[in-house]
Amino acid sequence: MAITASQVKELRERTGAGMMECKKALVETDGDIDVAIENLRKSGLAKADKKASRVAAEGVVAISVSDDGSRGVMVEVNCETDFVAKGDEFVEFANQIASTVLAGSPADVAVLSDMDLAGGSTTVEVRRQELIAKLGENMTVRRFSVIDSRGGVIGFYSHGGRIGVMTALQGGDALLAKDVSMHVAAIRPIALSEDDIPADVLAREKEIFSSQAVESGKPENIIEKMVVGKMKKFVNEVTLLGQPFVKDADQTIAQLMESNGATIVEFARLEVGEGIEKREENFADEVMAQING
Hints:
By secondary structure, the protein is α+β, with helices and mostly antiparallel strands. The protein has three domains: about 5-50, Helicase, Ruva Protein, domain 3 (Orthogonal Bundle); about 60-190 and about 265-290, CATH 3.30.479.20; about 195-260, no CATH class. The chain contains twelve helices and eight strands. The chain has a three-stranded antiparallel β-sheet with strand order 1-2-3. Strand 6 and strand 7 form a beta hairpin. InterPro entries: EF-Ts_dimer_sf (IPR036402), Transl_elong_EFTs/EF1B (IPR001816), Transl_elong_EFTs/EF1B_dimer (IPR014039), Transl_elong_Ts_CS (IPR018101), UBA-like_sf (IPR009060).
């Protein structure tokens, strides 16, 4: 049967696939749109499987906060290139996922993948496969963080969509929480206070400082004081409360909180590609990789 332009248009709108792919799918199914959709999704899954081994270290961190400001969500969604990461469809997908997490409170990414995508007509996983088929890059929903205000306030900060931070305060206001979030984005504390630093991290640093002190040849009582001093400096450098405030280095974050009658309940920081080993590729190789699928 003859395939009409309106059929192709409808199939494109429902699947997001390219025009030629839609026309071919309709020809193969004699104009049956539902079967064509199923076939395109199967094709998308095959393409997704083929691209799954490719490194996806670019992407965005999307943020969504509840209307009453009581809960906040950040998600990291990855793709292969910065070009795709800046595209409207990819950014919309990431924002929809953040809204999905906010509304549905999934336990982990596996549960999230099977949930209905907020503002969409498919699940998160099906839409991911559709975008892989359409945009030609591997994509992953890597992780998400959820923060509860616990009756206080939440402030958030996004740096170019690549770094996202949320901070929950008791006392203070949303502006102060945003200032702290900006600080976290820039200075990257690993914990709120010394009590929150993993024990193995503290033990490793103490061992390093002890070895350095012994090599100095100083008496044992002096070595002990040197290690204590170095550990105190380390703790202040890596904990949020111990760090000098990025907007005013004359006061620490702890002092900033005290002067504003506020307490930091928790914070979360996500950075695109953090911890992912990236391949070194030049632009020409990247383009050829896209051409070759």
